[in-house]
Amino acid sequence: MRVEFGSLSNIADGAIELSSFFDPKNAELDSFLKKVKEIVESNEVRRLPKIPKGTRDFGKEQMAIRGRAFSIIESVFKKHGAVGLDTPVFELRETLMGKYGEDSKLIYDLADQGGELCSLRYDLTVPFARYLAMNNINALKRYQIAKVYRRDNPSKGRYREFYQCDFDVAGQYEKMEPDFEVVQVLTELLDELNIGEYEIKLNHRKLLDGMLEICGVSSEKFRTVCSSIDKLDKQPFEQIKKELVEEKGLAVETVDKIGSFVKKRGPPLEILSDLKNVGSQFLENEGSVLALNDLEILFRALEKSKAINKVVFDLSLARGLDYYTGVIYEAVFKGATQVGSIAAGGRYDNLVGMFSGKQVPAVGVSLGIERVFTIMEQLEKERNQVIRATETQVLVAVLGNDLPLAAEVVRELWAANIKAEFGTNKKFMKQYDRAKQNGIPWIMTIGENELKEGIVLLQKVENKEEGFKIPRDRIVEELQKRLNASSS
Fold first, then answer.
1. In this structure, are strands 198-204 and 311-314 parallel, antiparallel, or unpaired?
2. Which GO terms describe its biological process (predicted)?
3. Cα–chain-centroid distance for residue 46?
């Protein structure tokens, strides 16, 4: 007998027809249904687990790339005198709210535990400002490498959990000193990570506000208009124009005037000269004049430090976050891998004061390391290079089941800070293949013949060259000599 269900409307009729062939009180039917239930439930248990959208697992090769990148980043931060800092992964909700403008909707709230409303940190800047205020610190140059969380729609290069690498300078300094150093640090980071061509788009918040004032935008709409302008790197101006007119209530003439300004971008000193020309409307606006004077000092310093060629003065850069007060910047990768912005930051002179009432000026940059990792992983694929997941320098291969001997030899190497692994197996080729597959450059073999002679056999794995016979009591000295020669 075959029952067909031609459409959803026939399912009920089909079920009735099917049930007519079974006696619900039949013991065999009951047993059959229990077995079906067991199979379904066991399949549920065996179903492959998943990770949440917008998160990633990192395997051994990816962790090797990440480790290398973090090492470079930390060394650049320390070169500039920054000290490390760590803060809790979640903050009181009141600490985070009101600091991110329209992006506040992306904050992850946690369930109420113990009477406190908490949220996962959205970035590392607000927790840093809270730390300064809470500890009454007036000056600090710090770095922090840690995970942050966004309740965002995941997409390529956009995650809900990701690392940020922050460098910030807080305190009173001569005009534009810390701003210059932070931009300089950003160029050094991206150069040393060696990811390819990039540009740093730069603007000034006071210049933006001045531009909007010149265009006739009321001050209470500055921030919401800026959040629309900030989308210009992803959407055409006509789409932004529609949003500004229809959703944010600006006049068409006002938006057209904004459009004529935000199209200005190019070499910093050239655009600066254009904006300071006689007759420029920016010279009639007090905030814009202050901004242009700041930018001239900054650009002259970047010119002397040979970093100016990495910077583009871009009046469309708006940075949507509410706390920026001065220079703002965003680094964009220009290679084939489309990842969008890879770093951003700016000056935030009022943020610490929101917590303590005491103003501590600050400026910083945050590197979106996940997108940098995407670029680095793609480059490794293009170079067709084997990514070493370990830093092991030598494999101690004992040809036989003699763990105590392996332990004795490898302990000497570990005591000398040589990165070593060991194996006990009668088959030499099995151990050799292990070294080759894992990219271990040297293999140290000890078999019956070597034991009798009181030596070990040291071979270079890559070209399978003939081994060096080394006296047992000189293995550390001889191996270090060859490792030093290889590295140089």
1. parallel
2. histidyl-tRNA aminoacylation; mitochondrial translation
3. 33
Task: Kindly tell me the burial class for residue 9, based on how many C-beta atoms sit within 10 Å of its own C-beta (0-12, 13-18, 19 or more).
Answer: exposed
| DSSP calls for 208-272 | HHHHHHHHT--GGGHHHHHHHHGGGGTS-HHHHHHIIIIIT---HHHHHHHHHHHT-EE-HHHHH
DSSP string, 340-394: -EEEEEEE-SSHHHHHHS----EEEEEEEHHHHHHHHHHHHHHHTPPPPS----E
Q: Is 164 among the annotated ligand-binding positions?
A: yes
* 3-state DSSP assignment of residue 99: coil
Report whether 168 belongs to an annotated binding site: yes
**Rounded (10°) angle between helices 252-262 and 222-229:** 60
CB 200, CB 331: distance < 8 Å: yes
Query: How far, CA to CA in Å, does 398 sit from each of 16, 417, 452, 467?
Result: 72, 20, 14, 15
The model's pLDDT over 57-95, given as tens digits with 9 standing for 90+, comes to 888 888 888 888 999 999 999 999 999 999 999 999 999
The predicted structure's pLDDT at residue 2: 47
Residue 325, marked binder: no
Residue 176: Cβ within 10 Å count: 23
Asked if residue 86 belongs to a known ligand binding site, the reply is no
Instruction: Report in angstroms the alpha-carbon separations of 474 from 421, 450, 457.
Output: 18, 14, 12
Q: Which residue has the tokens 């951003």?
A: 344
Is 392 annotated in some ligand binding site? no
- For the cut 60, the answer to whether the pLDDT of residue 11 exceeds it is no
Pseudo-torsion of CA 227, 336, 332, 242, nearest 10°? -20
Q: Is 323 annotated as a binding residue?
A: yes
Choice among 142-151, 375-384, 392-401 with the minimum mean pLDDT: 375-384
Percentage of the chain exceeding pLDDT 90:
50
User: Is 87 part of any known ligand binding site?
Assistant: no
CA angle 421–424–427, rounded 5-degree value: 115
| pTM, entire model | 0.79
Please count the other Cβ atoms lying within 10 Å of the Cβ belonging to residue 69. 21
Give the pLDDT confidence of 26-37 residue by residue, as tens digits. Answer: 667 677 777 777
Query: From CA 299, how far away is CA 158, in angstroms rounded?
Result: 32
